[in-house]
Amino acid sequence: MPSPLSRRNFLLTGATAGTALALAAVPARAAHRPRGPFGRYGSPSARLTPQTLYVHPGGAGDFTTVQAAVTAATGTGRTLVIAPGTYRETVSVDADRTGMTWLGASEDPRDVVIVYDNAAGTPKPDGSGTHGTSGSATTTVRPDGFTARWITFANDWLRTDLPGTSGTQAVALKVQGDRSAFTHCRFLGHQDTLYADSLSLDTFARQYFSHCYAEGDVDFVFGRATAVFEHCHFRTLVRPDLTAAPYGFVFAPSTAGANPRGYLVTRSRISSEAPDGHYKLARPWVPSSDTTARPMLTVRETRLGAGIDAVAPYANMRDAHPWQDQRFAEYRNTGPGAVITVPGNRPQLTRAEAASHTREAYLGDWRPYDRHR
Questions:
Q1: What's the DSSP call for residue 47?
Q2: Is the CB of residue 233 less than 8 Å from the CB of residue 220?
Q3: Is 230 within 8 Å of 212 (Cβ atoms)?
Q4: Rounded to the nearest 5°, which phi and psi values hold at 214?
Q5: Would you call 192 a catalytic residue per the annotation?
Q6: Cβ of 139: how many Cβ atoms within 10 Å?
């Protein structure tokens, strides 16, 4: 059972731990990639396109940090090719960088790690308070049309870093833009790892995650986006600070009441390094900024491991907003965490209802799955 410090070492080195990264999602061709820090994606002397910039921690690219490359990549349609390395920095991408693409040059997400260790309760350097949840994000992506492949986004802050604080949210990635696609990426953290959100309450941003891996403990996939997770692996972690269940929650959607589509998880799996039954599948997040939110989550044709509490897989975040009043549903899931023992606790879609809970229905005229494989 990994200790918190070994978890930090794992984040920094990119090493696998047991079966935790069985879904590393490395294409077969990665074993035959060309030599050189940028693989098959050219170099500063032989650019993939005039719009391509190269990042290398040792100076073999245009920039040594991701943020410096983002700052320089003005306009639309820019590509960043990122060489293997651990980039310890925070990265913020403004909304005007539309159509941006980030590529991990080795085509193995374990090789390119963007990581930092801010938490919501971490004091800001200027003394103006603490970062808050959004401010804790290692990487914040705002533009529409953003694509990332073969990248690890991580937050390696640990609760032992700030004992006694209530600000334990520590976001690895906050993504807000419409038509944002992540393929063969990893999202590593503890609480609030992946923040799949939108730029405003009345913006229904569509996001697509394919062959990705996310891990954490409390609400580690959360936000108000319309997000499809296909062929993804979610893993729940141990909680050395707790002695009893529940340890946490996988999903915490905060879908706007007017949005007909929230989170869809399809053909994926949820595993755990925690004891059996110590995790809830989801709880609804109705934030104070949008008390009319009606969180939505559909999990279908997905394997739920023994770490999920099959008897009571859902819980309330606040009693004023019971999960039964939200839009939670399942369809044809398998595994010990999907066994229906109390039907009232496991809302199931009919076959007819399931026909409207597909990636096509959620993403509309945007079809990232045709090219992101």
A1: E
A2: no
A3: no
A4: -135, 140
A5: yes
A6: 28
Question: How crowded is residue 316: how many other Cβ atoms within 10 Å of its Cβ?
Answer: 15
Q: Quick check: 9 pLDDT over 70?
A: no
Helix or strand (DSSP H, E) at 7 = helix 4-13
Residues whose CB falls within 8 Å of the CB of residue 242, separated by 6 or more in sequence, listed in order = none
> What is the rounded distance in angstroms from the CA atom of residue 306 to the CA atom of residue 271?
7
Torsion-angle region of 179 (φ positive above 0: left; ψ -120 to 50: alpha; else: beta): left
Q: Which of 62, 144, 178, 219 is catalytic?
A: 219
Mean pLDDT of 79-84: 98
Say how far apart CA 133 and CA 120 lie, in whole Å. 5
Give the confidence band of 18 by pLDDT, cuts at 50, 70, 90. very low
pLDDT in tens, 236-277: 999 999 999 999 999 999 999 999 999 999 999 999 999 999
In the three-class reduction of DSSP (H, G, I as helix; E, B as strand; rest coil), residue 10 is classed as helix
Tell me whether residue 224 is exposed, middle or buried, using C-beta atoms within 10 angstroms of its C-beta: 0 to 12, 13 to 18, 19 or more: buried
| pLDDT tens per residue across span 180-210 | 999 999 999 999 999 999 999 999 999 999 9
Residue with more model confidence, 269 or 160: 269
CB-based burial, 64-87: b 16+ in 10 Å, e otherwise: bebbebbeebeeeebbbbbbbbbb
Instruction: Say how far apart CA 136 and CA 131 lie, in whole Å.
Output: 6
Instruction: Give backbone dihedrals phi and psi of 278, rounded to 5 degrees, phi first.
Output: -95, 5
pLDDT of 19: 32
State which H helix or E strand residue 214 sits in. Answer: strand 213-216
Task: Check 178, 192, 197, 217 and give the catalytic one.
Answer: 192
Query: Computed from CA positions of residues 290, 232, 182, 23, in that sequence, does the dihedral angle turn out positive or negative?
Result: positive
Rounded to an integer, what is the distance from CA 340 to the centroid of its chain? 28
Placement of tokens 């590509």 in the chain: 79
- Tell me how far apart the 2 most distant CA atoms of the chain are, in Å: 63
Q: How many CB atoms lie within 10 A of CB 334?
A: 12
Q: Is 276 a catalytic residue?
A: no
